[in-house]
Amino acid sequence: MIALIDYGAGNTRSVVNALDRLSVDWTLSADPAVLNSADKLILPGVGAAGSAMHALREAGLVDVLRATEQPLLGVCLGLQLLYERSEEDDTECLGLLPGVVRRFPDGGVPIPHMGWNTLRLIGETSLLDAGMDDAHAYFVHSYAAPMGPETRATCTYAGVTFSAVVQHGRVVATQFHPEKSAALGAAVLRNFVTA
Amino acid sequence: MLAKRIIPCLDVSDGRTVKGVNFVGLRDAGDPVELAAQYAAEGADELVFLDITATVEKRQTVTALALRVGRVLDIPFTIGGGIGSVGDAASVLQAGADKVAVNSAAVARPELVSELAEAFGSQAIVVSVDAKGHADGWTVATHGGRTDTGFDALAWIAEVQDRGAGEILLTSMDADGTQAGFDRPLLEAVRPLCCVPLIASGGAGTIAHFAEVLAADLADAALAASLFHYGTLCIPDLKAALAAQAIPIRPC
Questions:
Q1: What is the pTM of this model?
Q2: Residue A108 is part of a domain; what is its CATH number?
Q3: Cβ-defined contact of A115 to B5 (cutoff 8 Å)
């Protein structure tokens, strides 16, 4: 069973719809017992880092997520929350990945980075297939995660090359929205579910 | 590289599309869900649904539409038409829409844009601006162009960005329906003061019209309705032609 972490994230319904299209069983829960007994976890996310961490804290899930041992997929803001900090609302995040999530520089191209951008595969990950190099995925974000040893695919916008897909131990995440990225996104979700 | 987006727009009333479609093989051309799936399969990058239902049950019909579309569609979609409050937007976004578009309600009460951005984040808030040209600039029209508010369109676009709009859907009321090309002077005036993504709308009639504004980077996306609905232009042909002109697009 896949458990989606229920903390009011804006794209929860869209992720659920995508799992339904793949005929994957899921449950939506904020109950630590349910989350700990799930095979895999998904941390969805749309919105601001500050209010998202506040919601996770209110639900008593911050330490639960830090301590879980199952595979965990972060999506969009769910990726950013895995890092130590976000510049957005100067927020302390989960700290499962090192580094600080920073805002794209203002004054040049439009912010948010919104639309279909190309992935550059730079490492092995169970989430991606080789054919996804240079393929388009759907992004919507104003803040981006740094490059690091955990980076498996990059994307470039506003002169910044950032982590589009990361993997570190049990933790994997996508800055793009697999639930809105057509066939590529479906394949990414299927890879997470079946890996 | 970030692709330029091609966005079909569907007008929906009481859960049915209201403009004619001539897709071959659709069981029910009036069903917005089936039509949306067809556009997605053809390579549309995103869809906009404009709900023009004029009943008091509007919130329920538009929420039901978002729920049905969201189950089927694996690309982003925006719902506009009659979003007048945070509550209206919440029901549509929680049902699975990625963005809401506001127009007349925001002009009537600009605080709505701030409230929506605060509640859902700028990325979910599209402000739809219907601009009407005059000798000395553009004013904002509402109610499908029937009302000219007299507000300066450029000032309005600046204000809604300050209030947290995450995207501007700019429709030229002068070009709309003409199929004579997007309103290039309007886009040239708006683009420099737009620090969020800009969707060009109104006037598309040929592939060259899309190529002209996208190659010149006058918009991040281009929207059309009748052109696609009546089969004048199909998305695979449009995208192939744009790609051949080295305009960044997502292949179908």
A1: 0.95
A2: 3.40.50.880
A3: yes
Q: What percentage of chain B carries pLDDT values higher than 90?
A: 78
* Nearest chain A CA: its distance from B121 CA (Å): 5
Among residues A51, A175, A111, the alpha carbon closest in space to that of B164 is found at A111
* pLDDT tens, position by position, B131-185: 999 999 999 999 877 889 999 999 999 999 999 999 999 999 999 989 999 999 9
What local confidence, expressed as pLDDT, does residue B242 receive?
98
Distance CA B58, CA B13 (A): 9
Stretch B204-227: mean pLDDT: 96
Inter-chain residue contact B96 with A17, CB threshold 8 Å: yes
Can B130 be counted among the known catalytic residues? yes
pLDDT in tens, B192-212: 999 999 999 999 999 999 999
Element of type H or E holding B62? helix B58-72
Neighbouring CB atoms inside 10 A of A34's CB total 15
CB-based contact B198:B157 (threshold 8 Å)? no
Mutate to test the interface with B, among A22, A116, A142, A155 (most CBs of B within 10 A): A116
pLDDT-derived band at A193 (thresholds 50, 70, 90) equals very high
Q: Which residues pair with A103 in a beta bridge?
A: A143
Rounded CA-CA distance B202/B58 in Å is: 26
Within 8 A by CB and 6+ apart from A23, the residues are none
Between CA A144 and CA A164 the distance in angstroms is 9
Question: Residue A171 sits in which domain range?
Answer: 2-194
pLDDT at B19: 66
- Number of domains present in the structure of chain A: 1
Task: Give the helix/strand (H/E) hosting B40.
Answer: helix B32-42
Q: Which tokens go with B55?
A: 């009943």
What is the total residue count of chain A? 195
Q: What is the reported pLDDT for A9? A: 82
Q: Which of B142, B143, B140, B160 lies closest to B152 in space, CA to CA?
A: B140
Q: With helix as H, strand as E and coil as C, how does A71-107 read?
A: CEEEECHHHHCCEEEECHHHEECCCCEEEEEEECCCC
| Residue B165 near chain A (CB below 8 Å) | no
